[in-house]
């Protein structure tokens, strides 16, 4: 094994180590490819360079690619599938299961630009992480321009995750609006509410829960100002109380 590792770069050039790394991590590589495809399709939907009709088809492709990535990631986290309630409960704790559900919620719905940003940004962040590993396997100083871009993306990861959480939250009223405008189904708001409760209770990603708290603090600060009309203050306080009652217990 040591001999093949040493001879690899000589036989395959600078990219030999990267190829060997990807071949030895086939599942991770498959998810990397599907994430890059998700980023590609999402970008062509947000920027419909090929036309609006083609943009709508790229919307579905992005969500289907994200569903594939989420399913692969879920299989990686829980490799032994069991048709049981305990397995389902364990699967629902995984972020990959949340975004598998997310993709299924929106894949056949009216295209909503707001709904593609979480898929695009999560795929971009995870693809960037694996790309750095591939570059490291290729050479410690290969493609410095790309490395610089990846470092900048990594430096802004916290802001990106907050933006994703903001999208997750404001998609809830958007699904209700879509229902009343005739662009959504009756079940969509209820299923999306379930998704949002899963994100709120996420063990690995606390940003949705954190952003709910931050939004509550900001709203309460604004409505307590003397210039705020009384009826607006009462409406906001009632809404905060209602949302707080709907919030699940964090895991």
Automatic annotation (TrEMBL):
Keywords, ordered alphabetically: Membrane, Transmembrane, Transmembrane helix
A single Gene Ontology CC annotation of this entry is: membrane
Highest taxon, organism lineage: Eukaryota
Signal peptide (from-to): none
Membrane-crossing ranges are 32-52, 99-125, 169-193
Annotated membrane topology: Multi-pass membrane protein
Q: What is its main location?
A: membrane
Q: Does the keyword ATP-binding apply?
A: no
Query: Which family does the entry's similarity section mention?
Result: Belongs to the PER33/POM33 family.
Q: What is this protein called?
A: TMM33 protein
């Amino acid at each position: 094994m040591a001999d093949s590792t040493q001879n690899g770069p000589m036989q395959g050039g600078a990219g030999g180590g990267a190829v060997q790394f990807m071949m030895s991590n086939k599942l991770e590589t498959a998810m990397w490819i599907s994430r890059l495809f998700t980023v590609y399709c999402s970008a062509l939907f947000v920027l419909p360079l090929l036309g609006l009709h083609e943009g709508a088809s790229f919307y579905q492709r992005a969500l289907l690619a994200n569903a594939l990535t989420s399913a692969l990631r879920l299989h990686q986290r829980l490799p032994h599938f069991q048709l049981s309630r305990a397995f389902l409960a364990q699967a629902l704790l995984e972020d990959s299961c949340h975004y598998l559900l997310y993709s299924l919620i929106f894949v056949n719905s009216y295209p909503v630009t707001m709904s593609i940003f979480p898929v695009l940004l999560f795929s971009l962040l995870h693809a960037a992480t694996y790309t750095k590993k591939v570059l490291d396997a290729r050479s410690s100083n290969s493609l410095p321009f790309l490395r610089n871009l990846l470092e900048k993306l990594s430096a802004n990861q916290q802001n990106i995750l907050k933006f994703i959480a903001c999208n997750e939250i404001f998609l809830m009223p958007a699904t209700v609006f879509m229902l009343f405008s005739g662009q959504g189904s009756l079940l969509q708001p209820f299923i999306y509410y379930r998704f949002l409760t899963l994100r709120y209770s996420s063990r690995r990603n606390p940003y949705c829960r954190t952003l709910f708290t931050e939004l509550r603090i900001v709203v309460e600060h604004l409505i307590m100002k003397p210039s705020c009309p009384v009826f607006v203050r009462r409406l906001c306080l009632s809404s905060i109380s209602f949302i707080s009652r709907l919030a699940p217990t964090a895991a």
